Amino acid sequence: MTTNDTLLPASVLKRKAVVYVRQSTPQQVHANLESQRRQYELVDVAHRRGFTDVEVIDDDLGRTASGTVERPGFERLVAALCAGQVGAVLCLDASRLARNGRDWHHLLELCGLVEARVIDLDGVYDPCRPNDRLLLGMKGSISEFELNIIRSRMYEAARSKARRGELRLSVPIGYTWDRRVGLGLDPDQRLQEVIRLIFAKFRELGSARQVLLWMASEKIHFPYPSDGRTLTSFDWRPIRYRNVISILKNPFYAGVYAYGKSEKRTEIIDGRARKSYGHPKSMDTWEVFIKDHHEAYIGWAEYERNQAQLAGNAYGRAGDTKSARGGRALLSGLICCARCGRKLKVTYTGRYPRPVYGCETPNLQLGRKRCFSFGGLRIDTAIAGELLRAVAPMAIEAAQEAERMLNDQEQDRRRIAELELRQAQYDASLAERRYAACDPDNRLIAAQLEKAWETTLQRVEACRQRLDGMQAPEVSQPCPELKGLADDLAAAWKSPRTTMRTRQRLVRTLITEIIADVDVAAGEIVLVIHWKGGQHSELRVRKPKTGEHGCGTPEQALAVMHSMAGRWSDQDIAASLNRMGLPTGQGKTWTAHRVGSIRRVNGIHGYLSAEKNGEWLTMRDAAAKLGVSHHQIRKLINAGILDSRQIMPDAPHQIRAADLDSEHVAAALARKGRPCRPPDEKQISMFPDT
Description:
Helix content: 40-55%
Distance between the termini: 163 Å
Radius of gyration: 45 Å
């Protein structure tokens, strides 16, 4: 029973009294000051009871006593009880100490072991006495029951309002709650334009990362709450990937009011329940799902398409199509196996990587034979040809549509720049008014305000220069590049300015999926193209044999080898071919090894240094045969007396052996010291014979 009038034993009064102060939430700490005052007044109660040493533990202000969070103050109290330093524990009521049975009964057990008292506004309790122990146990149970009742009432009230769509949830950037009109779009036009631009660019590019890269390249910033919580003021900073993906995945922008999108999970750690919140649930398990609840930035159908696109980009599951990411393979993530239905994997082989499509890894892991594999260059070229033939009749319309999209992009950029300029001008005028209202005698504040004003003026000038650098698109004049696309699609497709990512996007715009198989008997690759709109077509491409490739040596290079082989080394032939600008079949420069390989494949006779009596001679061989110098042979060639053949200028001369025995050559060599030129019957000699 309570012992209000009974004096405490001297052994208890020798120890210290602990006043435990706690409030459940940070809001109560700031708002419910009366409860704090009453708890701190327990210090006077302890002194009246006869305690001289009184300690106040208020480390747990703003922490719940439900047992789900750490309470360092309560742990200090338990540690002091175990050490035998505490004679009494003072609290306003049992709910301040604990609202769960585990902590409450553990505290009572410790107090009974050290003969400490529990004191509240109702009296003094001795846990060693059965009646007092019973009363304390009932108070703890009532406190825990009260917490559960309050919690259940609050949750049911919130769920009831949420089912009606009236519960004020935290809204994302771009929305605001108004007391008079309720939920609506944020009145900041610049903020609305940025959000709409993200959805528009994702609709165009099909990739969240590409949207991020485009906005970063255009220096379009994203709003961040100034205080990190409220959505009343923003700081505009460079956009991040998480900003783009959070907007694309949030159904709130599609006009959906959702409640219960996440769940809490409880784990037992060190004998104590630990709860974590924010674990997402699948959409079909949400408690409340209301469409068309508020004004939306996009429709629900577009939101579903966006989620399907994001899922395909992230995981590439069966039935999904990877977005165009600019790799070397044109059909990456688009081509499937006709035998097992899996996406064909792309690998790159060779010193200069070339794509290879194959369906082998899952089968090899299971100990099965692989389905097939084939080179990707021929397939990509064939699909590109089919694509160009399909879009050729609509080339003009496609060019006009692309031109319109380009003009829309320019208009979006200019509109964003204009809004940034307006915002900067407003900030500058606000800074000016603050500086004008400042007391000039307060130099420190005036200097700071002046500096802020100058900063805003610099930002205004930067925004104005950026806006002036943008030229308004002229819709009336067609874009030359797009008109070129309409005139020559093939040239535009093969143009170095056309990136692989652009080609991949065009393929994915017109083709849903490609089913591939290999006809071993016919030696062909069978491709079934599923076009957008439901049409299908079949394409057969010859499959190269093992060791065969699609590269061939140019005929002009082979002709040079035929003419120079036998009298010139492979190194000389390679040098001549490189001077002529004739590459190999793979687009490489010539070396002696490559020349030798091509000669052996084509059966061209090579250079033999021992054979000096052939049909053709070099300048050195001709000089040795005539017994003259190398310089004299060159003078004969330059004068047109001795015929020679050159593959190209500065290439080695080839002289026919029979031409050395001609009369003109003999006569020129006989005239020592005279001009070496061919005789002209009509010309009168300056040195008549005397």
